[in-house]
Amino acid sequence: MFTKQTLLAFVGALALAAAKTTTEVNPTQAEIDADRLTARPYSPVSNVRGLVFDRFVNIWLENTDYETAAADANLAKLAKEGILLTNYFAVTHPSEPNYCASAGGDTFGMDSDDFLQIPANVSTIADLFDTRHIAWGEYQEDMPYAGYQGMRYPLSGANQYVRKHNPLVLYDSVTNDAVRPRQIKNFTTFYDDLEHHRLPQHMFITPNMTNDAHDTNIGVAGNWVESFLPPLLKNEYFSKNSLVLLTFDESGNYTHPNRVFSVLVGGAVPQHLKGTTDDTFYTHYSIIASLSANWGLPSLGRWDCGANLLDIVAERTGYVNWEVDLSSAYLNQTYPGPLSDSHYSAKWPVPLTDGECSAGNGIAKVVKKTYHGLHATRDYTSPVPYDEASGNNLGIKYSRTLKHGKKQSGITGNQ
Ligand SMILES: *[C@@H]1O[C@H](CO)[C@@H](O)[C@H](O)[C@H]1NC(C)=O
Ligand SMILES: *[C@@H]1O[C@H](CO)[C@@H](O)[C@H](O)[C@H]1NC(C)=O
Ligand SMILES: *[C@@H]1O[C@H](CO)[C@@H](O)[C@H](O)[C@H]1NC(C)=O
Ligand SMILES: *[C@@H]1O[C@H](CO)[C@@H](O)[C@H](O)[C@H]1NC(C)=O
Ligand SMILES: *[C@@H]1O[C@H](CO)[C@@H](O)[C@H](O)[C@H]1NC(C)=O
To answer: How many domains in the chain?
Structure first.
Protein backbone atom coordinates (compact mmCIF):
# COMPACT_ATOMS: atom_id res chain seq x y z
CA MET A 1 0.00 0.00 0.00
CA PHE A 2 2.68 2.47 1.03
CA THR A 3 5.75 3.64 -0.72
CA LYS A 4 8.94 3.53 1.26
CA GLN A 5 8.93 7.31 1.12
CA THR A 6 5.51 7.47 2.81
CA LEU A 7 6.55 5.25 5.68
CA LEU A 8 9.69 7.24 6.23
CA ALA A 9 7.71 10.45 6.17
CA PHE A 10 5.24 9.12 8.77
CA VAL A 11 8.04 7.96 11.06
CA GLY A 12 10.01 11.17 10.60
CA ALA A 13 7.02 13.27 11.55
CA LEU A 14 6.59 11.44 14.84
CA ALA A 15 9.99 12.57 16.02
CA LEU A 16 8.94 16.22 16.18
CA ALA A 17 7.89 18.18 19.22
CA ALA A 18 4.23 18.27 20.27
CA ALA A 19 2.02 21.01 18.87
CA LYS A 20 -0.16 23.12 21.13
CA THR A 21 -3.71 24.28 20.83
CA THR A 22 -3.77 28.00 21.42
CA THR A 23 -6.60 30.27 22.47
CA GLU A 24 -4.78 33.35 21.22
CA VAL A 25 -7.29 34.94 18.84
CA ASN A 26 -5.07 37.74 17.56
CA PRO A 27 -1.36 37.00 17.86
CA THR A 28 0.95 39.92 17.13
CA GLN A 29 2.87 40.21 13.89
CA ALA A 30 6.07 39.64 15.89
CA GLU A 31 4.67 36.36 17.26
CA ILE A 32 3.59 35.28 13.81
CA ASP A 33 7.00 36.06 12.36
CA ALA A 34 8.68 34.07 15.13
CA ASP A 35 6.39 31.04 14.73
CA ARG A 36 6.88 31.13 10.99
CA LEU A 37 10.59 30.42 11.48
CA THR A 38 9.94 27.05 13.09
CA ALA A 39 6.66 26.01 11.44
CA ARG A 40 7.20 23.31 8.85
CA PRO A 41 4.54 22.17 6.42
CA TYR A 42 4.18 18.42 6.26
CA SER A 43 3.06 16.60 3.12
CA PRO A 44 2.57 12.88 3.59
CA VAL A 45 1.64 10.82 0.55
CA SER A 46 -0.34 7.60 0.28
CA ASN A 47 -1.84 5.49 -2.44
CA VAL A 48 -4.95 3.75 -1.14
CA ARG A 49 -7.20 2.76 -4.04
CA GLY A 50 -10.82 3.89 -3.82
CA LEU A 51 -13.91 2.37 -5.42
CA VAL A 52 -14.62 5.41 -7.59
CA PHE A 53 -11.73 7.86 -7.03
CA ASP A 54 -8.20 7.81 -5.64
CA ARG A 55 -8.11 11.48 -4.71
CA PHE A 56 -10.79 13.91 -3.55
CA VAL A 57 -10.34 17.66 -3.87
CA ASN A 58 -12.92 19.82 -2.07
CA ILE A 59 -12.89 23.49 -3.15
CA TRP A 60 -15.24 25.96 -1.44
CA LEU A 61 -16.40 29.35 -2.59
CA GLU A 62 -18.62 31.64 -0.51
CA ASN A 63 -22.13 32.91 0.07
CA THR A 64 -23.89 32.60 -3.27
CA ASP A 65 -27.33 31.35 -4.25
CA TYR A 66 -27.49 28.48 -6.72
CA GLU A 67 -29.10 30.59 -9.46
CA THR A 68 -26.56 33.40 -9.06
CA ALA A 69 -23.64 31.01 -9.45
CA ALA A 70 -25.26 29.13 -12.33
CA ALA A 71 -25.51 32.42 -14.24
CA ASP A 72 -21.73 32.95 -14.08
CA ALA A 73 -20.18 32.10 -17.45
CA ASN A 74 -17.02 30.52 -16.00
CA LEU A 75 -18.95 28.29 -13.62
CA ALA A 76 -21.47 27.33 -16.30
CA LYS A 77 -18.53 26.34 -18.50
CA LEU A 78 -17.05 24.20 -15.72
CA ALA A 79 -20.38 22.41 -15.26
CA LYS A 80 -20.19 21.25 -18.89
CA GLU A 81 -16.96 19.43 -18.04
CA GLY A 82 -18.51 17.39 -15.25
CA ILE A 83 -21.63 16.53 -13.27
CA LEU A 84 -23.77 19.42 -12.03
CA LEU A 85 -25.36 18.60 -8.66
CA THR A 86 -28.67 20.46 -8.69
CA ASN A 87 -29.86 19.66 -5.15
CA TYR A 88 -26.75 20.04 -3.03
CA PHE A 89 -27.52 21.93 0.21
CA ALA A 90 -25.41 23.69 2.80
CA VAL A 91 -26.57 22.88 6.32
CA THR A 92 -27.03 26.22 8.08
CA HIS A 93 -25.82 29.85 8.19
CA PRO A 94 -23.36 31.60 8.55
CA SER A 95 -20.04 30.31 7.15
CA GLU A 96 -18.15 28.76 10.04
CA PRO A 97 -20.69 26.06 11.00
CA ASN A 98 -20.71 24.84 7.40
CA TYR A 99 -16.91 24.45 7.33
CA CYS A 100 -17.13 22.83 10.76
CA ALA A 101 -19.79 20.41 9.46
CA SER A 102 -17.60 19.31 6.55
CA ALA A 103 -14.92 18.02 8.93
CA GLY A 104 -16.81 16.77 11.99
CA GLY A 105 -20.31 15.83 10.83
CA ASP A 106 -22.18 18.37 12.95
CA THR A 107 -22.43 22.10 13.60
CA PHE A 108 -22.80 21.61 17.38
CA GLY A 109 -25.37 24.42 17.19
CA MET A 110 -22.80 26.91 15.90
CA ASP A 111 -24.54 30.06 14.64
CA SER A 112 -21.68 32.57 14.42
CA ASP A 113 -18.25 33.09 12.87
CA ASP A 114 -16.59 33.46 16.31
CA PHE A 115 -13.26 32.06 17.51
CA LEU A 116 -14.49 28.60 18.56
CA GLN A 117 -12.74 25.39 19.57
CA ILE A 118 -14.28 21.94 19.56
CA PRO A 119 -13.21 19.59 22.38
CA ALA A 120 -10.66 16.85 21.77
CA ASN A 121 -13.20 14.07 22.27
CA VAL A 122 -14.92 15.02 18.99
CA SER A 123 -13.56 13.11 15.99
CA THR A 124 -13.12 14.39 12.45
CA ILE A 125 -12.42 13.11 8.97
CA ALA A 126 -8.72 13.12 9.95
CA ASP A 127 -9.49 10.20 12.31
CA LEU A 128 -11.34 8.41 9.52
CA PHE A 129 -8.43 8.84 7.09
CA ASP A 130 -6.01 7.60 9.75
CA THR A 131 -7.82 4.25 9.92
CA ARG A 132 -6.37 3.46 6.49
CA HIS A 133 -3.39 5.83 6.44
CA ILE A 134 -4.90 8.02 3.76
CA ALA A 135 -2.86 11.20 3.48
CA TRP A 136 -4.87 14.42 3.78
CA GLY A 137 -4.12 18.11 3.68
CA GLU A 138 -5.73 21.51 3.63
CA TYR A 139 -4.56 24.39 1.46
CA GLN A 140 -5.60 27.80 2.74
CA GLU A 141 -4.66 30.74 0.57
CA ASP A 142 -2.61 33.41 2.38
CA MET A 143 -2.31 31.51 5.65
CA PRO A 144 0.90 32.87 7.21
CA TYR A 145 2.34 29.46 8.09
CA ALA A 146 1.27 25.80 8.32
CA GLY A 147 -0.79 25.22 11.45
CA TYR A 148 -1.53 28.91 12.21
CA GLN A 149 -4.50 29.10 14.60
CA GLY A 150 -5.25 32.83 14.75
CA MET A 151 -8.45 34.50 13.63
CA ARG A 152 -7.19 36.07 10.39
CA TYR A 153 -4.19 37.10 8.33
CA PRO A 154 -2.98 39.72 7.68
CA LEU A 155 -3.82 41.25 11.05
CA SER A 156 -5.31 44.37 9.51
CA GLY A 157 -6.45 45.68 6.15
CA ALA A 158 -8.26 43.54 3.59
CA ASN A 159 -9.06 40.04 4.82
CA GLN A 160 -7.18 37.30 3.06
CA TYR A 161 -6.94 34.19 5.25
CA VAL A 162 -9.69 33.69 7.87
CA ARG A 163 -9.95 30.95 10.49
CA LYS A 164 -13.72 30.64 10.02
CA HIS A 165 -13.09 29.15 6.55
CA ASN A 166 -10.68 26.52 7.83
CA PRO A 167 -12.51 23.31 8.80
CA LEU A 168 -9.93 21.25 10.70
CA VAL A 169 -8.27 24.07 12.67
CA LEU A 170 -11.52 24.34 14.68
CA TYR A 171 -10.99 20.91 16.24
CA ASP A 172 -8.75 20.37 19.28
CA SER A 173 -8.32 16.73 18.18
CA VAL A 174 -6.41 18.22 15.25
CA THR A 175 -4.59 21.13 16.89
CA ASN A 176 -3.49 19.10 19.97
CA ASP A 177 -1.65 16.73 17.68
CA ALA A 178 2.06 17.03 16.95
CA VAL A 179 1.70 16.47 13.21
CA ARG A 180 -1.82 17.30 12.02
CA PRO A 181 -1.56 21.12 12.19
CA ARG A 182 1.39 20.93 9.81
CA GLN A 183 -0.93 19.42 7.19
CA ILE A 184 -3.00 22.64 7.20
CA LYS A 185 -0.92 24.60 4.74
CA ASN A 186 -0.52 27.67 2.61
CA PHE A 187 -1.23 27.83 -1.13
CA THR A 188 2.47 28.15 -1.86
CA THR A 189 2.83 24.66 -0.40
CA PHE A 190 0.06 23.46 -2.73
CA TYR A 191 2.19 24.36 -5.73
CA ASP A 192 5.26 22.81 -4.10
CA ASP A 193 3.35 19.61 -3.40
CA LEU A 194 1.98 19.57 -6.94
CA GLU A 195 5.43 19.97 -8.43
CA HIS A 196 7.02 17.32 -6.21
CA HIS A 197 4.12 14.85 -6.52
CA ARG A 198 3.37 15.11 -2.82
CA LEU A 199 -0.32 15.97 -2.99
CA PRO A 200 -2.47 14.11 -0.45
CA GLN A 201 -5.40 11.87 -1.35
CA HIS A 202 -7.86 14.20 0.32
CA MET A 203 -7.51 17.95 0.24
CA PHE A 204 -9.65 20.92 1.16
CA ILE A 205 -8.92 24.16 -0.68
CA THR A 206 -9.95 27.61 0.56
CA PRO A 207 -9.16 30.57 -1.70
CA ASN A 208 -8.74 33.95 -0.02
CA MET A 209 -11.63 36.30 0.76
CA THR A 210 -11.25 38.05 -2.58
CA ASN A 211 -11.11 34.94 -4.73
CA ASP A 212 -13.89 33.02 -2.97
CA ALA A 213 -16.48 35.81 -3.55
CA HIS A 214 -16.83 36.60 0.16
CA ASP A 215 -15.54 40.15 -0.11
CA THR A 216 -16.24 40.48 -3.82
CA ASN A 217 -18.80 38.85 -6.10
CA ILE A 218 -19.40 35.74 -8.14
CA GLY A 219 -17.70 37.23 -11.20
CA VAL A 220 -14.39 37.52 -9.32
CA ALA A 221 -14.74 33.99 -7.96
CA GLY A 222 -15.65 32.65 -11.41
CA ASN A 223 -12.49 34.24 -12.83
CA TRP A 224 -10.43 32.71 -10.04
CA VAL A 225 -11.91 29.26 -10.77
CA GLU A 226 -11.17 29.71 -14.47
CA SER A 227 -7.53 30.55 -13.73
CA PHE A 228 -7.01 27.90 -11.02
CA LEU A 229 -8.84 24.77 -12.08
CA PRO A 230 -8.57 24.13 -15.85
CA PRO A 231 -4.74 23.96 -15.82
CA LEU A 232 -4.92 21.45 -12.95
CA LEU A 233 -7.50 19.34 -14.73
CA LYS A 234 -5.08 19.11 -17.65
CA ASN A 235 -2.29 18.01 -15.31
CA GLU A 236 -2.18 14.21 -15.41
CA TYR A 237 -0.67 13.89 -11.91
CA PHE A 238 -3.35 16.08 -10.35
CA SER A 239 -6.32 14.82 -12.30
CA LYS A 240 -5.85 11.08 -12.77
CA ASN A 241 -8.63 9.23 -10.86
CA SER A 242 -9.33 12.46 -8.97
CA LEU A 243 -12.80 13.68 -8.08
CA VAL A 244 -12.92 17.45 -7.65
CA LEU A 245 -15.93 19.09 -5.99
CA LEU A 246 -16.39 22.80 -6.51
CA THR A 247 -19.09 24.03 -4.18
CA PHE A 248 -20.11 26.89 -1.86
CA ASP A 249 -20.27 27.02 1.92
CA GLU A 250 -23.82 28.43 1.91
CA SER A 251 -26.34 30.34 -0.19
CA GLY A 252 -26.23 34.13 -0.38
CA ASN A 253 -29.73 34.97 0.90
CA TYR A 254 -30.70 33.50 4.29
CA THR A 255 -34.39 33.41 3.37
CA HIS A 256 -33.78 31.37 0.22
CA PRO A 257 -33.27 27.60 0.27
CA ASN A 258 -29.63 26.89 1.22
CA ARG A 259 -29.02 25.19 -2.14
CA VAL A 260 -25.55 25.73 -3.56
CA PHE A 261 -24.14 25.33 -7.06
CA SER A 262 -21.90 22.27 -7.01
CA VAL A 263 -19.95 20.55 -9.75
CA LEU A 264 -17.97 17.32 -9.83
CA VAL A 265 -15.06 17.34 -12.28
CA GLY A 266 -11.73 15.53 -12.67
CA GLY A 267 -10.40 12.30 -14.08
CA ALA A 268 -12.68 10.13 -11.94
CA VAL A 269 -15.83 11.47 -13.63
CA PRO A 270 -16.87 8.84 -16.18
CA GLN A 271 -16.79 10.17 -19.74
CA HIS A 272 -20.50 9.45 -20.35
CA LEU A 273 -21.50 11.59 -17.36
CA LYS A 274 -19.65 14.73 -18.45
CA GLY A 275 -22.10 17.55 -19.02
CA THR A 276 -24.93 15.77 -17.15
CA THR A 277 -26.88 16.75 -14.04
CA ASP A 278 -27.63 14.78 -10.89
CA ASP A 279 -30.69 15.87 -8.88
CA THR A 280 -30.11 13.67 -5.82
CA PHE A 281 -30.42 15.51 -2.48
CA TYR A 282 -26.99 16.06 -0.98
CA THR A 283 -25.56 18.08 1.90
CA HIS A 284 -22.00 18.78 3.04
CA TYR A 285 -22.40 15.59 5.11
CA SER A 286 -22.85 13.56 1.91
CA ILE A 287 -19.21 14.24 1.13
CA ILE A 288 -17.96 12.70 4.39
CA ALA A 289 -20.22 9.69 3.77
CA SER A 290 -19.01 9.35 0.18
CA LEU A 291 -15.36 9.49 1.23
CA SER A 292 -16.09 6.70 3.71
CA ALA A 293 -17.90 4.58 1.14
CA ASN A 294 -15.16 5.14 -1.44
CA TRP A 295 -12.25 4.17 0.79
CA GLY A 296 -13.91 1.69 3.17
CA LEU A 297 -13.79 4.06 6.13
CA PRO A 298 -16.13 4.11 9.12
CA SER A 299 -18.59 6.88 9.97
CA LEU A 300 -18.23 9.63 12.56
CA GLY A 301 -21.67 8.58 13.83
CA ARG A 302 -22.95 12.12 13.29
CA TRP A 303 -24.93 13.57 10.37
CA ASP A 304 -22.64 11.77 7.93
CA CYS A 305 -24.19 8.48 9.10
CA GLY A 306 -27.53 8.87 7.33
CA ALA A 307 -26.39 11.19 4.52
CA ASN A 308 -27.00 10.28 0.89
CA LEU A 309 -23.91 9.15 -1.02
CA LEU A 310 -22.79 10.79 -4.24
CA ASP A 311 -24.69 8.84 -6.88
CA ILE A 312 -21.54 7.64 -8.68
CA VAL A 313 -20.44 6.10 -5.36
CA ALA A 314 -23.87 4.74 -4.36
CA GLU A 315 -24.05 2.98 -7.72
CA ARG A 316 -20.91 1.09 -6.90
CA THR A 317 -21.81 0.15 -3.33
CA GLY A 318 -25.48 -0.62 -4.00
CA TYR A 319 -26.69 1.90 -1.42
CA VAL A 320 -30.15 3.30 -2.16
CA ASN A 321 -30.27 7.07 -1.63
CA TRP A 322 -33.26 8.81 -0.08
CA GLU A 323 -35.55 11.02 -2.12
CA VAL A 324 -36.26 14.19 -0.21
CA ASP A 325 -39.35 16.36 -0.63
CA LEU A 326 -37.72 19.74 -1.13
CA SER A 327 -40.91 21.80 -1.19
CA SER A 328 -40.30 23.06 2.36
CA ALA A 329 -36.56 22.44 2.64
CA TYR A 330 -34.53 25.54 3.49
CA LEU A 331 -31.77 24.16 5.72
CA ASN A 332 -31.18 27.75 6.82
CA GLN A 333 -31.76 27.33 10.58
CA THR A 334 -29.65 26.52 13.60
CA TYR A 335 -30.45 24.24 16.53
CA PRO A 336 -29.51 24.15 20.20
CA GLY A 337 -25.94 23.23 21.08
CA PRO A 338 -22.84 24.17 23.06
CA LEU A 339 -21.55 26.45 20.28
CA SER A 340 -24.84 28.28 19.81
CA ASP A 341 -25.27 31.91 20.82
CA SER A 342 -29.01 32.02 20.19
CA HIS A 343 -30.02 28.53 21.47
CA TYR A 344 -27.22 27.71 23.91
CA SER A 345 -27.30 24.30 25.54
CA ALA A 346 -24.31 23.06 27.54
CA LYS A 347 -24.45 19.44 26.40
CA TRP A 348 -22.07 18.30 23.68
CA PRO A 349 -24.10 16.13 21.30
CA VAL A 350 -23.36 12.42 21.61
CA PRO A 351 -22.85 10.59 18.30
CA LEU A 352 -24.21 7.18 17.33
CA THR A 353 -22.02 4.32 18.50
CA ASP A 354 -23.87 1.63 16.64
CA GLY A 355 -25.24 1.25 13.12
CA GLU A 356 -24.13 0.53 9.59
CA CYS A 357 -24.57 4.06 8.16
CA SER A 358 -24.95 4.89 4.47
CA ALA A 359 -21.27 4.22 3.78
CA GLY A 360 -21.81 0.70 5.11
CA ASN A 361 -18.74 0.48 7.34
CA GLY A 362 -20.18 1.12 10.81
CA ILE A 363 -18.94 3.71 13.29
CA ALA A 364 -15.29 4.60 13.94
CA LYS A 365 -13.70 2.69 16.84
CA VAL A 366 -12.52 5.88 18.51
CA VAL A 367 -16.11 7.18 18.54
CA LYS A 368 -17.48 3.90 19.93
CA LYS A 369 -14.87 3.91 22.66
CA THR A 370 -15.34 7.56 23.68
CA TYR A 371 -19.14 7.49 23.74
CA HIS A 372 -19.67 3.86 24.81
CA GLY A 373 -23.06 3.31 26.44
CA LEU A 374 -24.43 6.78 25.65
CA HIS A 375 -27.46 7.53 23.50
CA ALA A 376 -27.11 9.63 20.37
CA THR A 377 -28.42 13.15 20.93
CA ARG A 378 -29.76 13.62 17.42
CA ASP A 379 -31.50 11.67 14.70
CA TYR A 380 -28.19 11.03 12.94
CA THR A 381 -29.55 8.28 10.69
CA SER A 382 -31.71 10.84 8.84
CA PRO A 383 -30.57 12.05 5.40
CA VAL A 384 -31.82 15.56 6.33
CA PRO A 385 -29.69 17.04 9.12
CA TYR A 386 -32.48 18.56 11.20
CA ASP A 387 -34.56 16.99 13.92
CA GLU A 388 -35.98 19.46 16.38
CA ALA A 389 -35.05 22.96 15.39
CA SER A 390 -37.36 25.89 15.39
CA GLY A 391 -39.16 26.89 12.23
CA ASN A 392 -39.45 25.52 8.78
CA ASN A 393 -36.99 22.66 8.68
CA LEU A 394 -39.43 20.39 10.48
CA GLY A 395 -41.76 18.18 8.51
CA ILE A 396 -39.39 17.56 5.58
CA LYS A 397 -40.40 14.17 4.18
CA TYR A 398 -38.04 11.60 2.77
CA SER A 399 -38.58 8.15 1.34
CA ARG A 400 -37.00 5.43 -0.74
CA THR A 401 -37.75 2.06 -2.22
CA LEU A 402 -35.18 -0.59 -1.48
CA LYS A 403 -34.07 -3.01 -4.19
CA HIS A 404 -36.42 -5.79 -3.09
CA GLY A 405 -39.38 -3.38 -3.19
CA LYS A 406 -39.65 -2.44 0.49
CA LYS A 407 -40.65 1.20 1.00
CA GLN A 408 -39.22 3.32 3.79
CA SER A 409 -40.05 6.86 4.83
CA GLY A 410 -39.30 9.46 7.47
CA ILE A 411 -39.92 13.08 8.39
CA THR A 412 -37.71 15.62 10.16
CA GLY A 413 -38.66 16.50 13.73
CA ASN A 414 -40.56 13.25 14.29
CA GLN A 415 -38.18 11.01 16.18
C1 LIG B 1 1.61 31.98 1.90
O2 LIG B 1 0.96 32.00 0.66
C3 LIG B 1 0.89 33.25 0.03
C4 LIG B 1 0.04 33.08 -1.19
O5 LIG B 1 -1.12 32.35 -0.85
C6 LIG B 1 2.29 33.74 -0.25
O7 LIG B 1 2.20 35.02 -0.78
C8 LIG B 1 3.09 33.75 1.04
O9 LIG B 1 4.43 34.06 0.77
C10 LIG B 1 3.04 32.43 1.74
N11 LIG B 1 3.67 32.51 3.00
C12 LIG B 1 4.49 31.58 3.44
C13 LIG B 1 5.05 31.81 4.80
O14 LIG B 1 4.78 30.60 2.79
C1 LIG C 1 -5.91 37.01 -2.82
O2 LIG C 1 -5.17 36.18 -3.72
C3 LIG C 1 -4.76 36.81 -4.92
C4 LIG C 1 -4.00 35.79 -5.73
O5 LIG C 1 -4.72 34.57 -5.84
C6 LIG C 1 -3.90 38.02 -4.63
O7 LIG C 1 -3.63 38.70 -5.83
C8 LIG C 1 -4.61 38.96 -3.65
O9 LIG C 1 -3.73 39.97 -3.28
C10 LIG C 1 -5.03 38.18 -2.41
N11 LIG C 1 -5.63 38.99 -1.39
C12 LIG C 1 -6.50 40.00 -1.54
C13 LIG C 1 -6.99 40.71 -0.32
O14 LIG C 1 -6.93 40.32 -2.61
C1 LIG D 1 -29.98 37.12 -3.38
O2 LIG D 1 -31.19 37.09 -4.10
C3 LIG D 1 -31.28 38.09 -5.14
C4 LIG D 1 -32.69 38.04 -5.69
O5 LIG D 1 -33.00 36.74 -6.12
C6 LIG D 1 -30.21 37.78 -6.18
O7 LIG D 1 -30.25 38.77 -7.20
C8 LIG D 1 -28.85 37.81 -5.51
O9 LIG D 1 -27.86 37.46 -6.45
C10 LIG D 1 -28.84 36.82 -4.35
N11 LIG D 1 -27.55 36.97 -3.67
C12 LIG D 1 -26.57 36.10 -3.77
C13 LIG D 1 -25.31 36.51 -3.09
O14 LIG D 1 -26.65 35.02 -4.32
C1 LIG E 1 -35.32 30.54 6.48
O2 LIG E 1 -36.12 30.77 5.35
C3 LIG E 1 -37.49 31.02 5.65
C4 LIG E 1 -38.25 31.07 4.34
O5 LIG E 1 -37.80 32.10 3.54
C6 LIG E 1 -37.58 32.31 6.43
O7 LIG E 1 -38.92 32.54 6.79
C8 LIG E 1 -36.74 32.19 7.70
O9 LIG E 1 -36.71 33.43 8.37
C10 LIG E 1 -35.30 31.80 7.33
N11 LIG E 1 -34.57 31.53 8.56
C12 LIG E 1 -33.44 32.15 8.85
C13 LIG E 1 -32.82 31.76 10.16
O14 LIG E 1 -32.90 32.97 8.13
C1 LIG F 1 -16.46 15.55 25.71
O2 LIG F 1 -15.88 16.79 26.09
C3 LIG F 1 -16.84 17.76 26.55
C4 LIG F 1 -16.12 19.05 26.78
O5 LIG F 1 -15.02 18.86 27.58
C6 LIG F 1 -17.51 17.23 27.81
O7 LIG F 1 -18.48 18.16 28.24
C8 LIG F 1 -18.16 15.89 27.50
O9 LIG F 1 -18.69 15.34 28.69
C10 LIG F 1 -17.16 14.92 26.91
N11 LIG F 1 -17.88 13.72 26.48
C12 LIG F 1 -17.50 12.50 26.84
C13 LIG F 1 -18.36 11.37 26.38
O14 LIG F 1 -16.51 12.30 27.50
So the answer is: 1
